[in-house]
Amino acid sequence: MIGAEPLTGRDSELGIIRRALGAGAKHAGVVLAGAAGVGKTWLAHEVLKRAQASGQRTQWIVGTDSAQALPLGAFIGAMTEALNEVQSDPLTDVRRVINLFVAQQRQRRVLVGVDDAHLLDGLSALVVHQLAQCGGVRLVVTVRTGSGGPDAVTALWKDGLLERLDLEPLSAAATREVIETKLDGPVDARSAARFQKLTGGNALFLRQLLADQVAAGRMRKTAGVWMWDGDVAVSASLSDTVGRQMGRLGPRVAMVIDTLSQCEPLAIEVLCDVVRRRDLAETERLGLVNIERTGAGLTARLAHPLFGELRRASAGELYLSEIRGRLATRLADVGDADMQATVRRALLRLESDLDPDAELYLESARHAMTLLDLELADRFATAAAQAGAPGAAGVRAMNLALLGRGEAAESALRALADSDMPDRHHWATVRAANLIWHLFNPNAAAQILDDLAADTSETPAQRAERLAVQACLDAVAARCESATENARAALSFPALPGFHAMMASLGLIMAMGALGQVDELAGVAEQALRRATTSFQASHLRFWFGAVYGRACRLTGRIDEFVSTARRIADSSRDIPGLAYANLALLSGNAELARGAVAEAARLVHEAVAGVQTHYVTTGLRPASYFALAEAHAKLGQADEANDAVAAARSCVPADF
User: Fold this and answer.
1) SS3 86
2) Distance of alpha carbon 385 from alpha carbon 402, whole angstroms
3) How far apart are CA 75 and CA 114, in angstroms?
4) Which fold is adopted by the domain 246-386?
């Protein structure tokens, strides 16, 4: 499954090295400097492998802790001929080694790789320095940043003998390239970003983490796209690679890591109410925790994201539940600065040994919906309902509809609409919307709306909600004038709920686009998208609305407006969960189609299709993704693939929809 080829993602660095080693270069080679695992050794190996393939003589020298105590220890294995006579004068041995390399250079060009040069003994370092000075032999030297080393090694770049190239961690784009090369197939952007975040661009960590996720089945290929869902699978190899000291920590020091693994960053005063301050100081000394000073004071976070994953994989659940409970209790005393803080505290409590907090869970369900994490919102709403929170059933029913779980939403919404509660009219209209968009049953929706309209006790607020959904039904049935009239009537009611306001805006945009009414398109879109950032009911609908607005823009020739709106929505949706990302990928793919970037559009729409299949979506997102994919394949001249996508789209909806 994992390709055997070495890591990629360093093409620009290879180009710099090639120029530094080329004819006419002003240096005798290059020093590759960087943190452990960043890819220095692989890069040096790759350079030597290519040089050998071109006919050059190559030699690989490695500095190690064990050989550091021996004079010329790094060269003992490679230069046996030069060192086979006992010499009383070490400098004579140095000269013999240098002469041997120079003699080889006379026969053909010589390239010497020196790995971990900061671990060289003094005489070995002197040999490398002299080789750089003599100017014949070319050198590729690696050093670990911040590790010191012999003066003769640091002089290689300080004296201008070798060009120094500082290797940065792999960029997000390079990380994705590495993954796709190793897996021999595309990976969705969200999964690639997750690897980037967890590894920090460390090539060594990336290779091991990727292998572990594939082996554990967490990284799977869906609709031709590799996707990573679920928790992190941690192998013994990953533990050894990232942090061997994790298994040797004392219990009090380990508790510092375990606490931060459940919630970071944490203010020092909060953390030190859970762990001892001297234990926190010890983790900082060991390089496991970073302490940062901010405007609000000192905060602590793990020095590397994978430290927390390693501890979570090995610590017991009862032990971690107790830590979460202590954190949730302490954070409640501090107060929540924003929605994210409330959600974080609620999740700690939900997964702790504390008693349920129904109101906190219900509030956090709404916040999670606003923050586009509908899966988490469902957990909170379910827990709130189980704890007896009034209104929890309605929040969960709404969230099920937004999740695209049409049948489950229909069951929940039907129960609310058929109850004797005062808000049953409200839930009947939401049920009608779910039937239209998620279950593709406009006839059943029409019956519900007609029954509501026949009720003479309907209030102005209830009428506005009904008209909002009626506008959607009219748009689907191509009654564009009626859709426009009903949508405007609904939107004129000042207290229209967020969900219904988005329904009315959707119906209005669809009708205006079909009628070619372009003057008000931008204004309607602006109001709807502003609403989506503040309403928990409307937040997730921003993607769907953006796609509908994009279709209207394409019909009316406003391509630049569509592209800019899609980018704006993308900018408002950073670090989003899987289902939200599938919606965003479809929106972005349609925007790329509109502006003619067909290959990029096909990549994005493939990611949307993979997300739809992964999350078992029954909404219009599924056929819409297939239709966009069909358009992309057709424009690329891929007729068979386009026909397959059309067939898939047709299988998602009734023939008469």
Assistant:
1) coil
2) 18
3) 10
4) Arc Repressor Mutant, subunit A (1.10.10)
CATH class, range 11-166? alpha beta
Tell me the mean pLDDT in the region 461-480: 97
Please name the residue that has the structure tokens 């595309």.
Answer: 186
Length of the chain: 657
Tracing tokens 């059933």 back to the chain, one arrives at 393
Amino acid type, 217: G
State the CATH architecture for 573-657: Alpha Horseshoe (1.25)
The three state secondary structure string of 493-537 is CCCCCHHHHHHHHHHHHHHHHHHCCCCCHHHHHHHHHHHHCCCCC
Q: For residue 13, how many other CB atoms are within 10 A of its CB?
A: 21
- The rounded distance, in Å, linking the Cα atoms of 468 and 497 is 10
Q: What does the alpha-carbon distance between residue 106 and residue 102 come to, in Å, rounded to a whole number?
A: 7
pLDDT in tens, 474-500: 999 999 999 999 999 999 999 999 999
The reported pTM is: 0.84
Ramachandran sector of residue 352 (left: φ over 0; alpha: ψ -120 to 50; beta: rest): beta
Q: Over the stretch 306-364, which tens digit does the pLDDT of each residue have? A: 888 888 888 889 999 999 999 999 999 988 889 999 999 999 999 999 999 999 999 99
Backbone phi and psi for residue 232, each to the nearest 5 degrees, phi listed first: -85, 130
Q: Given phi > 0 = left and psi -120 to 50 = alpha, else beta, which region is 27?
A: beta
Nearest-angstrom CA–CA distance, 501 and 446: 19
E strand or H helix that includes residue 556 = none
Nearest to 265 by CA among 290, 294, 299, 233: 299
**Residue whose C-alpha is closest to residue 491's, from 468, 521, 473:** 468
